[in-house]
Amino acid sequence: MFKIATWNVNGIRARQAEVQDFIEREQPDVLCLQEIKAAIDQLPVWLCQMEGYWCYWHGGKGYSGVGLHVRKATMLEPPVFAHPDFDYEHRIATVRLPQAVVASIYVPNGGKDFPAKMRFLEALDAYALGLQASGIPLVLCGDLNVARTEMDVHPKEQKPRAIGQLPEERALLESIISRGLVDVHRRVEPDNAELFTWWAPWRSMKQRNIGWRLDYVLASQVLADRLASCVVQREFGTSDHGPVVAAFDL
Fold this sequence. Notes:
This protein has six helices and twelve strands. The chain is of the alpha+beta class. The strands form two sheets. The protein has a six-stranded mixed sheet. Strands 5-6-7-8-10-9 form a six-stranded mixed sheet.
């Protein structure tokens, strides 16, 4: 089994014990983290000295940032980590594995600079198209900050002109998925109208499951056809996002 997990931790220093517990419990082959909000010299020492994992951190102080952990049992030699040239504000890191190229992604929210969000999504679309043309399997993981459809937003949160629900954002997300990718969580639960990954941190929204689905595992068809499971762990951790864990029978 090949397990990929993605989690927007909303600050690695605030969530370090939870991340450690999560890794020890789930033992993912690949762990994609977003919104780490820390430069390398601010990271808890154990994170990059953890036995059993290669790690790559791409972040700055107090804002944005992504990370990748790859299990050494899955990749015996140090893997090649990188970030595409369209990256800015430490929002995407990639790793090339025998199974696929895996990307940890934190798309801009768009509230302060919506055109920048659209440019990032357009570049991500071109990136996915390029890998599709090369025949290299791809897994895009992370907080894409777009609710794919109306079903991906709780009825109490649906707002026609809210950023994250706009038609132009959704069109770009659909274009990215059309590059040979599958929204694996929706493949598992196509009719679940209560499938969310982010909840506003007030009025017990998480406990009441009044949220949005913003966090995705988008996998090339060759991998999606071997999907065994995909779950969101809403009740785990204190981040406003829940971890999403996908397992593939490889």
